[in-house]
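Try this one yourself first.
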């Protein structure tokens, strides 16, 4: 038999096995395709608008927005003791405006037994602030104009020429120059006298400024009501019952300063009363005067420097 005939004889015998293999593979593929998990299609028009399907226990929980932050607790107000400590530190460092702020806040916080020290320190700081070139909310900057005097500037802002001179370090009140820049107090003082406590509370724009001890009239002779300062005199002469007693005479009881009072509003007229100094410091804190308000000479001189004419005075029981 020829070799070509042998080859043609053998080849048909292999073809059935190849066909069988192909059929088996195709059947397996069909079987796998039919057995895979089926997921129903979601209609296109409901894919974004339909409600989400229920979540099985095995499904991961959907991510939720974090809860809003809890509101911050209100800041706890500082105690008067802590504010007093802060004020002492600022005062020691020479930062008087900040010391003043702390002391005022300490008083507003209730003082808690520290009132006497706070008032004492605050009074000292306040006097230093107005008596020097320090900036403070109650001061304005004034540029001297041609022909102006300290008295004219003081009248414009409701203060005293003595305070402008002292606060700006002016050696000669008659020697100010045009264009000179001055810091001038424009805040308003008020004096409140208590006959029961024998003290005087000075406020500046309604805020505590200083408290002074005083002496008041014996048997309630110091009149109560509203008044204003109408005149001021250094080294005053005393006129008891029309008799002149000059300053420096042993019988002159007015001390180094005098500020006369005049009744205002509905207060009954009370002439001859005023605020003055004394040579008898032992009478301060007591009700021993003939009716005027007495102060230590050092205190009345200080008050005299910064309180202008027209300052209101309220005297209460």
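Now uncover the answer:
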């Amino acid at each position: 038999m020829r070799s070509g005939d042998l080859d043609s004889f053998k080849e048909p015998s292999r073809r059935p096995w190849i066909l069988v293999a192909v059929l088996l593979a195709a059947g397996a593929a069909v079987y796998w395709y039919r057995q895979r998990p089926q997921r129903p299609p979601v209609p296109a028009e409901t894919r974004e608008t339909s409600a989400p399907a229920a979540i099985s226990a095995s499904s991961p929980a959907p991510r939720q927005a974090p809860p809003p932050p809890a509101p911050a607790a209100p800041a706890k107000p500082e105690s008067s003791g802590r504010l007093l400590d802060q004020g002492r530190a600022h005062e020691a460092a020479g930062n008087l405006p900040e010391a003043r702020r702390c002391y005022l806040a300490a008083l507003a916080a209730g003082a808690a037994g520290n009132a006497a020290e706070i008032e004492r320190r605050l009074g000292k700081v306040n006097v230093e602030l107005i008596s020097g070139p320090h900036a403070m909310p109650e001061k304005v900057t004034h540029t001297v104009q041609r022909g102006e005097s300290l008295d004219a500037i003081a009248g414009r802002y409701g203060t005293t020429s003595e305070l402008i001179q002292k606060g700006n370090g002016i050696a000669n009140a008659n020697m100010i120059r045009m264009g000179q820049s001055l810091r001038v107090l424009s805040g308003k003082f008020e004096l409140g006298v208590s006959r029961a406590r024998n003290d005087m509370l000075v406020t500046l724009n309604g805020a505590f400024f200083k408290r002074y001890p005083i002496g008041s009239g014996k048997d309630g002779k110091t009149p109560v009501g509203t008044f204003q300062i109408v005149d001021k005199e250094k080294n005053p002469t005393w006129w008891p019952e029309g008799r002149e007693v000059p300053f420096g005479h042993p019988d002159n009881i007015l001390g180094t300063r005098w500020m006369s009072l005049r009744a205002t509003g509905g207060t009954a007229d009370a002439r001859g009363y005023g605020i003055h100094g004394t040579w008898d410091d032992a009478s301060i804190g007591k009700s021993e005067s003939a009716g005027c308000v007495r102060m230590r000479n050092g205190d009345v001189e200080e008050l005299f420097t910064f309180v202008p004419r027209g300052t209101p005075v309220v005297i209460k029981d």
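Discussion: Helices lie at 3-35, 80-92, 96-108, 115-130, 150-157, 161-167, 297-306. Residues 87 and 103 are 6 Å apart (CA to CA).
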